[in-house]
Amino acid sequence: MPKEFHFDNVMLETDTGEVNWRASVDWRLELYGGTGDVSVRDGKVGELDIKTTTGEVCLKNTTVGQKITVETDTGSILLDKVFCRDLTTESGRGALTLKDTTVTEECYVLTETGDVSFKRFDAKYSKVQTDTGDVKGTLPLGAVFSVESETGDIRVPKSNTSSAKICEVSTNTGDIEIELAK
Q1: Beta bridge partners of 67
Q2: Per-residue pLDDT tens digits for 139-151
Q3: Which of 13, 85, 179, 182 has the fewest CB atoms within 10 Å, i.e. is most exposed?
């Protein structure tokens, strides 16, 4: 969808094929796909809901006033230069990357099989959970950390108990490595 268009509400559903969305939506943008990649770029959206069975999801240069929900059975998820109030991502199989992303309230990242990485990611509260996969990344500021890995190595900064930010990370089989940005 070209960037020049503007909508109040949109629901788009496909069985197969790519979706490339670039227009702004005042209220709610819902994109549902069976097989195919979904891309949302360079826009402003009130609330965003994306669900795919198989395919990559990419959000880039996007501001969402409320909540982003992304679900995929198989496929990677990338958020790059994204700003929102709340974020929930769920993936059965696939990597998840958060880059230059700010969540002003709550962030939930859940994946069964796949690595989670973040760079310059910031959230008031974040919970990252993966059954099989590493969790690695950088945060701009300190937080209170709660981390757990049944079989992997854990390397995180000391918790900043005076911080209002909370970061919970757990993995059954995988390493956890978090650094503070320099």
Answers
A1: 86
A2: 887 889 999 999 9
A3: 182
Q: What's the mean pLDDT in 88-100?
A: 96
Residues 6 or more apart in contact with residue 24 via CB below 8 angstroms: 5, 6, 7, 43, 44, 45
The answer to whether the beta carbons of residues 95 and 75 sit under 8 Å apart is: no
Cβ atoms 173, 152 nearer than 8 A: yes
Question: Around Cβ 93, how many Cβ atoms within 10 Å?
Answer: 16
pLDDT for res 162: 85
How, if at all, do strands 96-99 and 166-173 pair?
unpaired
Instruction: Read off φ and ψ for residue 153, nearest 5 degrees.
Output: -80, 150
Distance CA 82, CA 69 (A): 13
Measured in whole angstroms, the distance separating CA 110 from the mean position of its chain's CA atoms is 9
Residue 1 has pLDDT above 60, yes or no: no
- In SS3 terms, 31-71 reads as EEEEECCEEEECCEEEEEEEEEEECCEEEEEEEECCEEEEE
C-alpha dihedral, 99 to 104 to 110 to 116, nearest 10°: 20
- Take residue 115 and report the two structure tokens written for it: 């690595």
- Measured CA to CA in angstroms, residue 5 lies from 1, 57, 140, 143 at distances of 8, 21, 35, 40
Residue 21 to residue 33: CA distance in whole angstroms:
13
